[in-house]
Amino acid sequence: MSTIQDIVLAFRDKPGGIIEAYHAVQKEYNYLPEETITVAASTFGVSEAQAYGVATFYSYLSVEKRGKYIIRMCESAPCHVAGAEALIKAFEAALGIVAGETTADGKFTLELTECVGQCQATPVITINNVPYVNMSPEQVPAVLALCQ
Ligand code: FES
Q1: Domain coordinates of the chain in residue numbers?
Q2: How far does the centroid of ligand 1 lie from the alpha carbon of residue 103, in Å?
Q3: Pocket test for ligand 1, best of 73, 118, 133 (most atoms within 8 A of CB)
Q4: Which keywords label this protein (predicted)?
Q5: 69-145 is classed in which CATH architecture?
Q6: Which of 44-58, 59-73, 88-102, 112-126 has the weakest average pLDDT?
Q7: Is 79 annotated as a binding residue?
Q8: Are 123 and 87 a contacting pair, CB within 8 Å?
């Protein structure tokens, strides 16, 4: 695993480099560890408050620690009508957390999201951005077992 410093420095001369650097760090660590902000501030010549502001502006960036597997449950109308609520409850029960939380072992984060463009086969979840369609609460244990 590359260090945060190495990842951020690789983008120092690029226009909009701070956002690209954040993407790259999040890709490797699944979130932006605190050190990312201080390293980005010094690398891109902005205050830590500004660097933090960028990190928290975009919903796809997270400064909260997240799990190895990020499960996102679509809660837009078509998925909602198709049973998203029951699916969310099944994941919450199976993982022992509520949406927005990460399991204590750091393996899973459960999040809600807007439409992920798979409305032809609702309800839909994604795990690390891979969609799983036509989901039902009964499929939850099998889907979690795929995450090793
Ligand atoms: S509404 Fe859920 S994928 Fe589109």
Answers
A1: 4-57, 69-145
A2: 25
A3: 118
A4: 2Fe-2S, Iron, Iron-sulfur, Metal-binding, Oxidoreductase
A5: 3-Layer(aba) Sandwich (3.40)
A6: 59-73
A7: yes
A8: yes
- Residues 26, 63: contact at Cβ < 8 Å? no
Alpha-carbon distances, residue 15 vs 11, 19, 20, 41 (angstroms)? 8, 9, 9, 15
Helix, strand, coil proportions of the chain in percent (round to 5)?
45, 15, 40
Sheet strands side by side (includes 125-127)? 108-113, 69-74, 125-127, 130-132
Per residue in 18-68, pLDDT (tens digit) is 999 999 999 999 899 999 999 999 999 999 999 999 999 988 899 988 999
d(CA 98, CA 101): 6
Q: What are phi and psi of 71, to 5 degrees?
A: -95, 125
The reported pLDDT for the residue numbered 15 is 87
d(CA 30, CA 39): 17
- Where on the phi/psi map is residue 108: left (φ > 0), alpha (ψ -120 to 50), or beta? beta
Residue 115 Cα: closest atom of ligand 1: 4
